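User: Run a structure prediction on this.
Assistant: Running it now.
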Amino acid sequence: MRYLYLVTHPEAQHHVDGLVGGWYDSALTRRGHQQAERIADVLQAKIGANPVEVHSSDLRRTTQTAETIAARFDTKVHLDPRLRERTNGDADGRPQSWLTERRIPLPEYGDRLAHHDGPEGAETRLHLVERLYPALEEILSRESETQIIVSHGNATSYLISAWLGIPMLNTDRGFFPLTSGGITTLRRNDTHYSNQVLALNETDHLDV
């Protein structure tokens, strides 16, 4: 059995300030650091003394979360920029209202993955899945049977799709609305040869 735990980073300063996240390198707030400790508590209880690998997006809010988790297991963090959130280009770090005024709405039909939201330098969802899918495949090719990935809300939703074997071009409508600081538990069942979702977006630990 392989276990994979997906963690969305907890409260970061851009959440509090009402700014667009994306590649804006926001740090965890004091509350976010407390939530990261709670996340580490939950994972330690789930995993116990089993060896674990920790992988993370290289942005501060995720690396801070990942380092807190890795310290509990006396291991290091493997940083991978492919695990970053989708960038909003020029909108990153600006007020959410700035992006709202300029965003081109996602169409109901057509090539939704290739849709461009408007801001200069923004990634399409196709760009996002084209880097996330290979990143997950590489992580899963490693020998460790227990792994943790710390990433971001939208990115983690597509990681779940990749885990379930949904082809990249079929991810234009499926989406898992995830909470900051949530934990999703995945398991590879070697008896049934199935990739399972055991728990989606656990958040009870966030009450700090």
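The helical segments are 13-17, 30-47, 60-72, 96-102, 125-140, 153-163.
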